[in-house]
Amino acid sequence: MNVRRSAAALAAVTALTGAAAAPAVAASPSPSASPTLPSGLYGSADPTYDGVWRQSLALLAQDTVGVKPAARAVDWLTGQQCSNGAWAPFRVDPALACNAKTMVDTNSTAAAVQALAALGGHDDATDRAVTWLKSAQNKDGGWGYTATGAGDTNSTSVVIGALTAVGEKPADVRKGGHSPYDALQQLALPCDGAGAGAFAFQPDREGKLVANADATAAGVLGALGKGMVVEPGERAEVGECETGPKGLAANGAAHLSQALAKDGHLMSSLPGATDQPDYGNTADAVVALAAQGGAERAAEPLAWLEKNSAAWAKQSGPAAYAQLILAAHATGTNPRDFGGTDLVKQLNATGPAPQPAASKSTDGDADSKADSDSDGSGVSVWWMVGVGLAAGAGIGFLISGRNKRQQP
């Protein structure tokens, strides 16, 4: 989700610049002045790296809880699409045609597809997007962050979610004779030994797979053929170490359960973030666990989020509220009373007011950006800005996220 994209972006930085995979950044740089924000966009932070991603999550979360988004919020998202069907993280002037320098990516595109498919009425946009995604598929069956990038668990999984959202069968979408599930199989660790059952983001430089909790949360959903929305009561529980995609999901869920057992939450792997909880990845893990084993399997991390996530979400903005709403939805929890917080109200306040219930009218669709939404994409986006600066290149396609440095 929004806070799990930095490693894909960092991999792209490395490929383009030859920079080290994890350049040292002493401290998160201060945000630069944001460009003039479109009135239909959620969040008040600079959208350069995550505009489409956070907008897609906001619209998807609203639809999930029965809120009809403002028409101009939806129009903003559709207006960002390039003629070839892909989305970039943010286009300052959508009236200008995309060209070879427009840094489109699979993650923004797949997130937009999931949101627009849920809202309905955007078949032309989603059809063109899926056509582009298929053209970007790698010969191993998976996807990288960019159309020519090395495949990774997170990108492959979010594209699987997009395919499912439009009624495609991911297993039938093949390149070089391989399906997306074949690609996930190659990124999954064995169900015994170090990192048992987890997914790696990508193989390391020696070709070794190292467990990554963030990639594992994504991989569980991808292996189940699911997108970001998991309906309460769904489960695909099978025995661990079984073969096939559902077996991969069971193994991944077991790894997440073990990682969560000590504290009820996952830990941040950002540079300098010693002993800091990872709220966004914990929310992702809740959705993954609920999808694989039901709400009871996600009960402990969900309870931790209800107690501890309010300040993080307020600071991080619309995508964070959306993640928590999706976690609540997957477990049958009321997002309007999530540890005493009305997540839906808070999300709505970060963008244009939704349409009135049971009304097609967009009258009164006033921009209600919340002053408290100081960072619409998450604090760690500025770490990614620092990465781009450290790499010495003008990178326009990084989107917000946690550092996906491989973790045990």
Number of helices: 15
Structural class: mainly alpha
The tally of structural domains comes to: 1
What is the CATH level 1 assignment? Mainly Alpha
What's the CATH topology label? Glycosyltransferase
Transmembrane segments: 381-399
Keywords: Membrane, Signal, Transmembrane, Transmembrane helix
InterPro entries: Terpenoid_cyclase/PrenylTrfase
Region (Disordered): 337-376
List the helices and strands and how they pair.
Elements: H1 6-17, H2 51-64, H3 71-79, H4 106-119, H5 123-135, H6 153-165, H7 180-186, H8 213-223, H9 245-260, E1 266-267, E2 277-278, H10 279-293, H11 299-308, H12 310-316, H13 318-330, H14 343-348, H15 381-390
Antiparallel strand pairs: 1-2
Helix pairs in contact: 1-15, 2-4, 2-13, 4-5, 4-6, 6-8, 8-9, 8-10, 9-10, 10-11, 10-13, 12-13
Protein name: Secreted protein
Keywords: Membrane, Signal, Transmembrane, Transmembrane helix
Biased composition (Basic and acidic residues): 362-372
Keywords:
Glycosyltransferase, single chain, 408 residues
How would you concisely characterize the structure shown here?
With 408 residues, this protein is mainly α. The protein is built from 15 helices and 2 strands. It has a two-stranded antiparallel ribbon.
